[in-house]
Structures are given as C-alpha cells and as structure tokens.
Amino acid sequence: MLHPLRSLAAAAFALLLLGAPAEAQKNCVKGKPCGNSCIAINKTCRIGTGTAVTATTPANSNAVVVPEGALYVASTRGVTYYAVTCRGWRSLTPSNLRWFKSLEEATAAGLRPSAQTGCAVAVTPAAVAATPGGAGPLPAPGSSATCTVSVVVDGDTVHCREGQKVRLLLVDAPEMDQGVYGPLAKSQLLELLPTGMVTRLEYDVEVRDRYDRDLAYVFLPDGSMANEELLRSGMAVVSVYPPNVKHVERFRAVADDAQASKRGLWATSAFGCLPADHRAGRCTPSPRHPMEL
Fold this sequence. Notes:
Strand order of the largest sheet: 5-6-7-10-9
Helix content: 10-25%
Oligomer: single chain
Structural class: alpha+beta
Distance between the termini: 70 Å
Shape: elongated
Strand content: 15-25%
C-alpha cells in the first residue's frame, strides 16, 4: 500500500511536470546541472546553478575522471565535500557528482568538509597532478591488485608504492604504544613483508575503511598469506568486521593453535588487553611482563 505522504508527493510532482514548459523538459540532461527550471524525471538529472565544473561521469564510479580544474567534489544528495585527492568520494553515485574549482565554491554551496581522513584538506592543482592515479579508484569486491611494499606502519598496516594504504583483513596486532608488543608485531610483519616485496592484494566484500585504507588479504610471492602468518606466529588476534569474513574460520583455527602452543605474544600478557580494547581505553594498567623489562 502506498504511503499517504509518498502518494501526495507523487501527485504534486505530476502536477509540476504537467505544468512545466516543454523547453525546460528538453534541457533536462542526465547527470548534468540544468538550472532551477529543469524537471528531474525519475531523478535522471540534477538541479544546479551552473557555477560548478561539469563532466560526463560513467556509470561505474571507478572509471570517473576528475575534470580539469576540479579540486573538490560532492554529491547533490549529500551535505559534505571531498578533496579530489582522497578516495572517499569514489563510493558516491557518479550521476550525482558535483565538482568545484575551489574551497570557496564548495563552502558557498552550503557544504561542510568530509570527516574522512585526508578528504577535507586544502588542495592545489599541483597536488592533484602529483597524486598517483588521481584520487585512486575503489577496487571491486573480490578483485585483486598489486602492492609493492614501501612502508610497514605497524603490525597490521602497510603502504604500497602503487599508492594504497593497506589494513590487513581479519587480524589485529598490538598498537605501537602497547609497550614492546606493538614494535614486536611490526618487526614480524616487516620480516614477512620487507620493503620492495611485490605482493598480491585480495579484496573481500568491503574494500575500504573510513580511514581511506584498502582492506585486503596480502599474499606473498610463495603463495602464503601475511594475515594468516601473523596469526600463526602469535603476533596478532583475529578481528572480525562483517561482511569481510571469507577466511574467518580458517584464521580462527590458526589463531587457536598459536594460543594453545603459546607462540609469540601468547607466551606473554600482551593479549590480556586486546588491541581493540586498548584503542577504546577499556584496559587498566597491569603488572609488566618480564619481556617489557
């Protein structure tokens, strides 16, 4: 049964459409601003002032090309703007994208900066040109990519020369400020993924987090998986955030074996405060383990 409010809205829209001049309907072009006189039939075009930079946007958001001169982008349905050098906007519907040449234009449109890391920064044309691959396309779920390791950030995060920041899926290693445990986990990951190693990334369902990091399983040249090896060595715990659960049962079995065998950090009190609890401030100080002395 049609909701009364929706029915009323539909009737009002129909009356508006019937009373609209034919010329205004002709000017309604999918995905482009058409002025306040434009009638958006089935949301196939969008209202705009004509001051923003316009560009044809393909159906696939991964293939969207940033138009020349554009430094910021927003969705016509949203209230935030993004710097084009960040990846957060790649999840927006292409036909709803609205481009701006300056920060002043974006704020004058009544938009506020995105809260995503790196998406609200002031950018210049030079910064856009220097960004590898533009803002970086959003990988397709289940796809693969190459990562040449450039930096091991901590026990579960690496950066790639290709531009990705990668958070290893389904694992959580101690934070760098958790005594000696964070640096130990980082050393283990650095041993697995030395600088310059060419690895293969495999994506699950959700491919990027709110910190602009790719979420991936990282495969070494010999076919082993860095995520799994961290668990096997006892340097991380399983951390599950659906819908990324492809290897979860396999990982749990490996982690249970490491814990039972007291390998790596399981031989210490490291996981008495899980990394997630540490980040949330839920842990109380505990006696130091001899490894910390």
